[in-house]
Design brief:
Elements lengths: L12 H4 L5 H12 L12 H26 L8 H26 L5 H9 L16 H22 L5 H29 L3 H21 L10 H6 L7 H18 L10 E3 L4 E3 L5 H11 L3 H14 L1 H8 L11
Antiparallel strand pairs: 1-2
The chain binds Phenylacetyl coenzyme A.
Phenylacetyl coenzyme A binds next to helix 3, helix 6, helix 8 and helix 9.
């Protein structure tokens, strides 16, 4: 869909809402314009509902899949305190998925359908979680920079129009801020440590820079959904605006630690106030989000395993299958 520098005319709001009752649509858009929150039982255009389900569901999937790269380091964390902190962080991410699945359910798609669409590869999740955490330093970079990117996105969108999503984002941002501090502490520890530790964190930054630049989504001139989502205040800033906010906040911090960002073209243009950088490879991004990244198969296999092995627990909790229920004595 993207790769050519244009916004698909079929995705323009007018085209997407041509079958809606114009009076209701106008009232809905006036509410959004006035800063009202839309709640689950309110009238909303079909396309608004569809876009929200797509985005919130992808976000929820990103949180449970996102627990996996760092999760693989729980047993290998350097020291008991770091192990405890990492366990708590991973647990938080899974909790975020719960909040987000609940928000998406208010729009009419069941959790079961969402999980099935994740496992079958129909639904997407964030590109970044298809890369491996090769060393402990990778977990430090993830907790610092991916969580930072997530906060930039979520803080902006928590001021958006759909009540249940905004409320979930507010809570998630508070927890993510803690993750960011934890990640920053880990990166500072390694960057100011021994030569080997500094090399480890530098190598991890080199590995993660490209996925981090992709994280905010394709450039505005090829983004498919931004125009519609910004009109309805689901997205409160465009992909490029979010990427710029992130660069503005974190590039100076990375440089302060003496780390090198693997992009020779990265610099702030003082006259425009914008960061200039090498255009990310959007063809690679497209391959990764569509199933052909380094860890896509492994990530989905883990979720499939958890889904299958956990089925009896869900059945027991729902008491649908008496065979699994221990009688109370
Ligand atoms: N990864 O037209 P746009 C986290 C897809 S949470 C994968 O620009 P849109 C916490 C997009 O879906 C991270 N796919 O799309 C944590 C669309 O495909 P479709 C997740 C991507 O929606 C930290 C196509 O490309 N956060 O990290 C990505 O306007 C540490 C065209 O793109 C959210 O999900 C991507 N990066 O903007 C956990 C936030 N970017 O559906 C553990 C909510 C784009 O047409 C450890 N989502 N695509 O087939 C959003 O804000 C938006 O959906 C964007 C994309 C900004 C991600």
């Amino acid at each position: 869909m993207y790769g050519n520098a244009y916004i698909d005319p079929d995705q323009t709001p007018n085209k997407l809402t041509q079958d809606e009752d114009p009076a209701r649509l106008a009232e809905f858009e006036a509410r959004i314009e006035g800063g009202d929150k839309i709640e689950p039982k309110d009238w909303m255009p079909k396309e608004y509902r569809k876009q929200l389900i797509r985005m919130i569901e992808q976000h929820a999937h990103s949180e449970i899949i996102g627990a996996l790269p760092e999760g693989t380091w729980i047993t290998r964390a350097p020291g008991f305190r770091r192990k405890l902190a990492l366990m708590a962080k991973v647990q938080d991410e899974v909790g975020h998925a719960q909040l987000l699945y609940s928000a998406a359910e208010t729009l009419g798609k069941s959790r079961e359908e969402m999980i099935n669409d994740l496992i079958s590869g129909k639904s997407k999740y964030s590109n970044v979680f298809n890369y491996p955490a090769e060393t402990w330093a990778d977990t430090a970079i993830i907790s610092w920079l991916i969580d930072a990117g997530a906060i930039v996105n979520q803080l902006a969108n928590s001021k958006g129009s759909y009540g249940p999503y905004c409320r979930a984002l507010e809570r998630i941002c508070v927890e993510e801020s803690f993750h960011l501090k934890y990640g920053h502490d880990n990166v500072v520890f390694l960057a100011t440590g021994t030569k080997t530790q500094r090399e480890m964190v530098q190598d991890a930054l080199i590995r993660w820079w490209k996925p981090v630049m992709h994280f905010f989504g394709p450039s505005d001139n090829i983004s498919v959904h931004t125009k519609t989502l910004m009109k309805w205040k689901v997205k409160m800033a465009s992909n490029d605006e979010m990427r710029q906010t992130f660069l503005n906040m974190y590039v100076p911090k990375i440089w302060d630690l003496g780390l090198v960002i693997p992009d020779p073209n990265l610099k702030k243009n003082e006259s425009t106030g914008l960061w200039e950088y090498t255009e990310p490879d959007w063809e690679e991004f497209k391959r990764v989000i569509n199933g052909d990244g380094p860890c896509n198969k492994e990530r989905l296999a883990v979720r499939k395993y958890a889904e299958e092995k956990g089925r009896w627990v869900r059945k027991a909790l729902l008491r649908k299958d008496a065979e699994y229920v221990t009688p109370l004595v």
